[in-house]
Amino acid sequence: MPRPFKPRRISAMPRYTYFKPTGIPMPLLDEIVLTVDEVEALRLKDIEKLEQHECAARMNIAQSTLQRILVSAREKMTRAIIEGKALRIHGGPYALEGELTCPRCRRRRHGAGNQGIEACPECSD
Questions:
Q1: Cα-Cα-Cα-Cα dihedral sign, residues 66, 51, 53, 101
Q2: Domains of the chain
């Protein structure tokens, strides 16, 4: 049996979700997808200047997981800049603070406070 789904907690959705080099039409650009949890990890570490253990605690993940997320995000951003690709922020295993996620069907719903993972009424898990 696979390990239960554990969403990475984020404080807010990114305001801007697409970046591209100027002067190149959209149909000619390759795209790199940066996940929402990768953006949150970068924000906490590089903008808020938190230590890795503090970032990991805020996102409700292990410090080793945070390190892998940061490495992946930085590689994607660097590749987009160096190779002139578009960068789209989309998807990933995340949950907004105060949002509950069913481990079985992954449906999201709002809950009272930050209670973590809770079953949904749709799949009765």
A1: negative
A2: 9-93 (1.10.10)
Q: How far is CA 101 from CA 28, 37, 90, in A?
A: 37, 15, 18
Residue whose structure tokens are 């009765």: 124
Model confidence at 115: pLDDT above 50? no
pLDDT tens digits, 71-86? 999 999 999 999 999 9
Cα separation of 74 and 106, whole Å? 27
Spell out the residues 6+ positions from residue 109 whose beta carbon is closer than 8 angstroms to its own: 99, 100, 120
Which two structure tokens, joined as six digits, stand for 112?
A: 């009272």
What is the three-class DSSP state of 10? strand
